[in-house]
Amino acid sequence: xxxxxxxxxxxxxxxxxxxxxxxxxxxxxxxxxxxxxxxxxxxxxxxxxxxxxxxxxxxxxxxxxxxxxxxxxxxxxxxxxxxxxxxxxxxxxxxxxxxxxxxxxxxxxxxxxxxxxxxxxxxxxxxxxxxxxxxxxxxxxxxxxxxxxxxxxxxxxxxxxxxxxxxxxxxxxxxxxxxxxxxxxxxxxxxxxxxxxxxxxxxxxxxxxxxxxxxxxxxxxxxxxxxxxxxxxxxxxxxxxxxxxxxxxxxxxxxxxxxxxxxxxxxxxxxxxxxxxxxxxxxxxxxxxxxxxxxxxxxxxxxxxxxxxxxxxxxxxxxxxxxxxxxxxxxxxxxxxxxxxxxxxxxxxxxxxxxxxxxxxxxxxxxxxxxxxxxxxxxxxxxxxxxxxxxxxxxxxxxxxxxxxxxxxxxxxxxxxxxxxxxxxxxxxxxxxxxxxxxxxxxxxxxxxxxxxxxxxxxxxxxxxxxxxxxxxxx
Length: 475
Prior knowledge:
Layout: E1 8-9, H1 15-18, E2 45-53, E3 60-67, E4 78-84, E5 92-93, E6 95-96, E7 99-100, E8 110-113, E9 119-126, E10 138-140, E11 147-155, E12 171-180, E13 186-187, E14 191-198, E15 205-207, E16 215-217, E17 227-234, E18 242-249, E19 253-260, E20 266-271, E21 283-289, E22 294-297, E23 300-305, E24 311-316, E25 324-329, E26 334-340, E27 349-351, E28 354-357, E29 362-367, E30 370-371, E31 379-384, E32 393-399, E33 409-413, E34 420-422, E35 435-442, E36 448-457, E37 466-474
Parallel strand pairs: 19-26, 31-37
Antiparallel strand pairs: 1-28, 2-3, 2-18, 3-8, 4-5, 4-9, 6-7, 9-10, 11-12, 12-13, 12-16, 14-15, 14-17, 17-18, 19-20, 20-24, 21-22, 21-25, 23-24, 25-28, 26-27, 29-30, 29-32, 32-35, 33-36, 34-35, 36-37
């Protein structure tokens, strides 16, 4: 296993770009996960009811399509469809020739048949731990108007609202095409739309007040795993029946994240929005194996909150020789990641994971003064008498990366480099999280301005050398 671990964000996202105050983005809503009903099953839904022409001969007939979760989801072998006139009593199996209407396999997800009246329907479970249980109840009329639903569509592109699916605030726009059975001409109008939230285990449909337009914009109320359905209902004069069109779901909150506090045994995960909780089972750490052509999971030993639920310390032990890992999370409410410009000229996209590179990563700070950026800004030693020494300025070199930061040395370069005296670093290699200091003193040889670069050389792949611009003035 690796003797050291440090992780830097890929795609050139440096410390100054990545960092924010953890939790400064607010909080992710605390939404309880959906559960199965007790003593029964869920998942039965009317997909559509309309009419179709007979394949052979003239005339047409009503058609009812029912959708449901597969029997295997509940450990069952099959379902039998039942019907009732009032939805409470008189339940009987739906006849199918000499038999009853039963699923043909434990992964079946729909029935499509010709109803002979208006009924309430439910599923009866056969086999498994729920044998004999029944599902939720739905009602469906046998359509009488001679029309059919011939086409439908859902546009979830980010151009509708500027927000990409599945993030909260993205739009979904539906369209429907209805045909007249007599001549296959298009029927315009005659539909009323209504959006619903659907429970993913029971498929209980909850009406969304005021959502009756083709375009629906998702909100925080859709978080947690709700499915979203648009119901198009005919006026029963020019258009018959109805269709419940699945339009999507899985709406989530994007939660920007960055990593810090790297050490030989782990790192700190920082979130822009605090979360209700985070356990090791909620996180997925993996790497791609080129030989196996698959992602290989890496166990996370522990996840500990640090001063609230926006920063967490992770203890991990990475496989030796692997240089890149991917960190993601499983949640029906939020996903960690980072923003990255993928296409020039287009808005940044939110990546639903963090890419972790195993490599050394140098940082340099001035005491006092704080963190320095490579070859950016100036450290001014002020005005000093000729041939006199200024007070020494102290700089700290730290390894914020993974592998040892080696090949360390310090020198000054430039026209006035000899006027900036540099003490050597006491070590040539720093372990992850390790640090060392050096000092710089300004001793002008003549009156006037002086400038040079103090360079910290190392094996950092992106900042070698790390340049510190220094200035002073002799008097």
